[in-house]
Specification:
The protein is an alpha/beta fold. The chain has one domain: Phosphoglycerate mutase-like (Rossmann fold). It has a 6-stranded mixed sheet with strand order 3-2-4-1-5-6, with helices on both faces. Strand 2, helix 2 and strand 3 form a beta-alpha-beta unit.
């Protein structure tokens, strides 16, 4: 049984409208939410073998903060230009290429692709995965390239304000 954790980047900063979308950093709330969500993962005893993240600034910042909270070495994060605003099919293609040795994978990317992707796996989960929202699945396969045919089970859906 494999585990897949889908994470939307934390809240971004729109203060400087001259920045390209790719270069937008996290805002104050995003910088706080990412380690908080990492701590929630740690409290669940949910660890990952690899983090694969979009290479945009806000996804990098989100991934590094979550990694620090769960004790994952930030140097081992895999940066993927293909995940920048990826649609659900591009996300799937990324999953197919994962090494079969990885039992538990975290993918950090963007809306609307991530919302479409998680809904395609579990039926309706949400109309909009909140920033820094996480959706975890169990995937019944031995190799990630068999992801499409595998049975998938929603394990949890969590986001920063779910406990407010």
């Amino acid at each position: 049984m494999k585990r897949l954790l889908m994470v939307r980047h934390a809240k971004s900063d729109w203060g400087d409208l001259r920045l390209k979308d790719f270069d937008r950093p996290l805002n104050k709330r995003g910088k706080e939410n990412a380690p908080d969500m990492g701590n929630r993962l740690k409290n669940r005893h949910y660890y990952v073998d690899v983090i694969v993240s979009s290479s945009s600034k806000r996804t990098k910042q989100t991934s590094k903060r979550i990694a620090a909270a769960i004790g994952y070495d930030k140097k081992n994060i895999v940066w993927s230009d293909d995940l920048y605003h990826a649609n659900k099919d591009r996300i799937k293609e990324t999953i197919y290429t994962l090494d079969k040795e990885y039992e538990s994978v975290m993918i950090v990317c963007h809306n609307t692709g991530i919302t479409d992707f998680v809904n395609s796996l579990a039926g309706y989960v949400t109309d909009n995965l909140p920033t820094c929202g996480m959706v975890a699945f169990e995937v019944d396969c031995k190799k990630w390239k068999k992801f499409d045919e595998a049975d998938k089970k929603l394990v949890f859906f969590d986001y920063p304000r779910s406990r407010d």
